[in-house]
Amino acid sequence: MLFAQPFFSESSGLLEARGARLLTAPFPFGVEGTRGWLGAAARDFGVAEQRLAEVTAAPAARAERAIARYRETLAGRRVSFLPDSQLEIPLARFLARECGMQLLEVGTPYLDRRMLGPELDALPPVLRLSEGQDVDRQIERLRRDRPDLTVCGLGLANPLEAEGLATKWSIELVFTPTQGFEQAGDLAELFARPLLRQARLKV
Question: Which pTM was predicted?
Answer without folding.
Answer: 0.94
